[in-house]
Amino acid sequence: MRQTEFGPDGAYIRWTEAEGAGPARVHVHGLGAATGPYTAHLSAYPELGGRRTLYVDLPGFGISDRPAGFGYSLEDHAAALAAVLDAAGVRGAEVVGHSMGGSVAIVLAYRRPDLVSRLVLAEANLDPGPVPGAGSSGIARWSEEEFVHGGGFAATLERVGWLWRSTMRLADPLALHRSACGLLRGTEPTMRAMLTGLDIPRTYLVGDAGDEIADLADLTASGVRVVGVPDSGHCIMFDNPRAYAAAISAAA
């Protein structure tokens, strides 16, 4: 395990690594998740072997610190992720981001093009505002005080299914709420505008039973390769890990 400071003094973001050759591959988890549980099983597939791979937990989640003075916006998360790559000596990485992690990856690529040579995005949030069925909307409907201290976090854990609850219960409630609000608030320019304007290889993965993703034709027109993954919902890596691994490999 490795760590580096980010944001407020004394706070650390942490990651684990697998050794390998070639450009580093960086996995970034979604809201209320952690990269280890969501991606470790993918290392069993040979097409993803042999590459240096970083498994990063964003601030407030997994094994990383959760400072109360951090904003947890998409831009804040992207800056923390940049601190990881700088500390690890990584340039020109392939960044694989799921859901909110994909949004963070887009912001990273837009702000620090030296760090990212390729994006693989699994049902990443592209536009501000609520997405039908997305969990971030249910979290953000509470005020911060109500969510953290007034029962909102406990109610959310009851509402979500066991799979998401298994990692969400380990997240910091303040970080979870601020991250959800940041995701709904989006960025300026929007994540979609950032993504369509990037001049690097970009792949967008869609589960055939996943979230409703608007304007996929707009992505294709801008040169983003849109790939449907069969027999999967929003969490492609659990529903069809073999196809998910193959899609990541094919994007390289």
From TrEMBL:
Q: Which domain of life is it from?
A: Bacteria
The species this protein was found in: Actinacidiphila paucisporea
Q: Which GO terms describe its molecular function?
A: catalytic activity
Q: Where is the AB hydrolase-1 domain?
A: 26-247
Q: What is this protein called?
A: Pimeloyl-ACP methyl ester carboxylesterase
Xref: SUPFAM superfamilies: alpha/beta-Hydrolases (SSF53474)
